[in-house]
Amino acid sequence: MEAPGMHVVVVGATGNLGTSVVQTLGADPRIDSILGLVRRLPQWSPAKTEWASADIADDSTDLAGHFADADVVVHLAWLFQPTHHPATTWRTNVQGSIRVFDAAAAAGVPALIYASFVGAYSPGPKDRAVDELWPTDGWPESTLCQEKAYVERVLDAFELQHPEVRVVRMRPSFMFKREAACEQHRLFRGPLVPKRLTRPERMPAIPDIPGMRYQALHTDDAAEAFRQAIVRTVHGAFNLAAEPVVDAAMLAKMFDARAVPVPGWPVRAAVSAAWRAHLLHTPPSLFDAVLHFPIMDTTRAQRELAWAPRYTVQEALQEWLNGLHEDAGLPTPPLVGSPGLRR
């Protein structure tokens, strides 16, 4: 008799990364079933997937009951907004994560995979790549980075308390895909940056800000790394990013524009003023953090996960731009296209 396949629970399965993870797992014959735990049930039926409603910020939610018989719990749920109310994001991102981890241990789940982020890393170099041993203390003024760094410390303690659980921490860079474009525009840009300004013909110049070098990858490539971490007996942290590194020269070449040197302080001041006026959804602290993100070395993921991105960064960004102007999306509450715009 053939051995039964795996049962995977994905917490936060309807967003940018979650939808790609669910689709990738559904195509793997080693995965028998997927349970997507979400706050709001979607009108979407991917292969092998059932849905259940659960709010990890609610301490009365029976997460352990949902995790019963799971071979792996994949924790992706995260709130970026509201950036003006960090207590709200803390309840989900930190306290909710702790509930997920404790429930996985209580249910006897053998493996836990957590979606961390490059922002968990302490400030690092831009001229060389760092591996997974780089400190994860975050950028002190960014709520997003500090929450990610705090959860990394929670996992440190969790691993000591529960050595029987295989823990994997995935640390992706910024992730882009066509279907997530409208959601990300809502979350990060806001009314100050209408979609029409993101068309290549409206970008004759790219500001070249000192230190503005960062990494990105296609969300489907990140999901493939998660799949590999699920089906392999690996543990520890993995950096995820594609080539090339994003900087003004790369963007100028991609959009046939000019890279124009611009000092960082006036841009930072403009971002701060717009955020305080609720015209821009990205806080100035995240602008500062990106200037200090290290460049990550992905050798470990390539070696131990047999992982390599299928898309270049340019291809991922171009697909994202196409999706933005096509009002692309998926029938899930986070990824609904622009006809369902929510401020």
Structural class: alpha/beta
Query: Averaging pLDDT over every residue, what do you get?
Result: 92
Number of strands: 13
Q: What characteristic shape results from the CA principal axes?
A: globular
Low-confidence stretches: 339-343
C-alpha Rg (nearest Å): 20 Å
Task: List the helices and strands in order.
Answer: EHEEHEHEEHEEHEEHEHEHHEHH
* Alpha-carbon distance between the two ends: 53 Å
Largest sheet: spatial strand order = 3-2-1-4-5-7-11
Level of helix content? 25-40%
Strand content: 15-25%
So how many helices?
11
Largest sheet: 7 strands, parallel
How would you explain this protein's 3D organization?
It is a single chain. This protein has eleven helices and 13 strands. Strands 3-2-1-4-5-7-11 form a seven-stranded parallel beta sheet, sandwiched between helices. Helix 1 crosses helix 6 (219-231), helix 3 packs parallel to helix 4 (143-161) and helix 8 (264-276) packs antiparallel against helix 9. The longest helix is centred in the first third of the chain and has 21 residues, at 86-106. The protein has helices at residues 16-26, 63-67, 86-106, 143-161, 181-189, 219-231, 248-254, 264-276, 284-292, 299-304, 313-325, and strands at 6-11, 31-38, 49-53, 72-75, 111-115, 129-130, 166-172, 174-176, 205-208, 216-218, 236-240, 258-261, 295-296.
Layout of secondary structure:
Elements: E1 6-11, H1 16-26, E2 31-38, E3 49-53, H2 63-67, E4 72-75, H3 86-106, E5 111-115, E6 129-130, H4 143-161, E7 166-172, E8 174-176, H5 181-189, E9 205-208, E10 216-218, H6 219-231, E11 236-240, H7 248-254, E12 258-261, H8 264-276, H9 284-292, E13 295-296, H10 299-304, H11 313-325
Parallel strand pairs: 1-2, 1-4, 2-3, 4-5, 5-7, 6-13, 7-11, 8-10, 9-12
Helix pairs in contact: 1-6, 3-4, 8-9
